[in-house]
Design brief:
single chain; mainly alpha; Growth Hormone, Chain: A
């Protein structure tokens, strides 16, 4: 797939371009703040477990709030909801400026959780809205760009965030994060194309959170294919406590401080950026291609992180992180495309809230385990333990996807 194909999509569809740019900007700000906050937590406490707590709060709060976000995405105007989620996060992001020492670090942790609640509204809504912004035949390309946006800004935001934190101070990184939400809201305000289909009736307007989750589960249980796509991210989430270990390796093992954290997170982002483009070219976008790509991504992720603790230097470790997240970025985009195509617009917000809720809950649990391991055993042992968990969960997913293979057939959109 040539670069011109993606450029033409951006040029011909200004509404999609606005959403894409909004996500690029807000993701960059997020990673500016995350790198600075991880460095702050390690500096003030010296405990890897507290650095891991930053990621636990991000994912745990997201998982708790995701069902509400999914319901809202299917009930009210998605454009207004995205704008509200962005604007609400501006003052919260500035709250990091109040964390000055160990006694006020709790303020930063509270802000992390509140920002995650905003993301739990924004992310399912954005994913549910995307199929309404582009023609169906161009949905795979749009997903590659949106999927790579996270990786692009992780690479840029994490890399620059580490440098800015060192050169200008962490407060600058926190302010940049707040400004990114305001700019994202302005971009989305300019979108004119409807972000949801017209509703013929009120449907599930009065259902509660539990019933909304049940509805999504019932829909998924009716199809092995949908279940496979739904559990893909969660399977990867089992081992993502590894991400907390990047901060430990960057500061303690390679002794490179915030710049070391930034470099490893930047390598992660470059992998997540490149993965969707490579997967699109290698496995295509049929349903069987999506399943095959997810399985290959699992193998790449586990293999690269198995080698990571053996790296003799930061400059050897970073390429391994890049390779690992080629797999991580690929599977996220592939599973998202599969769910978008297989789920009706009327319940798509709830389906993605379940999808993101499950994966962030698993990431939170995995990060807790990794944080405890990091303080109890050698960092290399902690990494290999998490790799073992990935392989165990991946074996289960592969067994499930084999049952879905026949159902998939040759369906889905073939490459043009």
């Amino acid at each position: 797939m040539r670069l011109s194909t993606y450029l033409s999509l951006l040029r011909e569809n200004p509404d999609f371009t606005r959403l894409y740019a909004a996500q690029l900007i807000s993701f960059a700000g997020d990673w500016f703040a995350t790198v600075a906050l991880l460095g702050l937590a390690l500096e003030l406490t010296g405990l890897a477990g507290l650095a891991a707590l930053v990621l636990v709060l991000q994912t745990g709060a997201f998982a708790v709030a995701a069902p509400i976000g999914g319901i809202l995405a299917d009930r009210i105007d998605r454009r207004r909801l995205l704008i509200a989620a962005d604007l609400a996060r501006v003052p919260v992001a500035l709250g990091f400026l109040l964390a000055r020492d160990g006694g006020t670090l709790w303020i930063a942790f509270t802000c992390v959780a509140l920002l995650a609640v905003g993301a739990a509204v924004f992310e399912p809504t954005s994913s549910a809205a995307l199929p309404n912004l582009v023609d169906r035949r161009r949905l795979p390309e749009a997903n590659v760009l949106i999927g790579s946006a996270w990786g692009t800004m992780l690479a840029v935001g994490a890399g620059l965030g580490g440098l800015v934190a060192v050169a200008l101070g962490r407060d600058v990184a926190f302010v940049v994060n707040a400004l990114s939400f305001a700019l994202s809201a302005w971009l989305i305000w300019g979108i004119r194309r409807p972000l949801q289909e017209a509703r013929e009736g009120h449907g599930h307007q009065h259902e509660g959170i539990i019933e909304a989750v049940r509805l999504a589960i019932r829909f998924a249980r009716g199809s092995r294919l949908v279940t496979s796509f739904l559990l893909s991210k969660t399977t990867f989430g089992v081992g993502t406590g590894l991400i907390a270990m990047l901060a430990v390796f960057g500061t303690d093992v390679f002794e490179a401080g915030d710049a070391g954290i930034g470099l490893l997170f930047a390598a992660r982002g470059l992998g997540a950026l490149s993965g969707p483009f490579i997967a699109r070219a290698v496995v295509g976008t049929t349903d069987r291609g999506l399943l095959l790509g997810i399985g290959l991504s699992l193998a790449v992720l586990a293999g690269a992180y198995a080698l990571f603790p053996l790296a003799p230097s930061l400059w050897v470790a970073a390429p391994l992180v890049f390779l690992a997240h080629l797999g991580g970025g690929s599977q996220w985009t592939l599973s998202t495309l599969g769910l978008q195509r297989a789920t009706p617009d009327a319940i798509r917000g709830r389906m993605f809230s379940l999808d993101y809720g499950l994966v962030t809950l698993m990431i939170a649990l995995s990060t807790i385990v990794a944080g405890q391991l990091a303080d109890a055993v050698a960092p290399s042992v902690a990494v290999w333990t998490m790799v073992g968990l990935i392989l165990l969960a991946g074996t289960g997913w592969v067994a499930l996807s084999r049952a879905a293979w026949a159902e998939a057939g040759d369906g889905g959109s073939a490459d043009e």
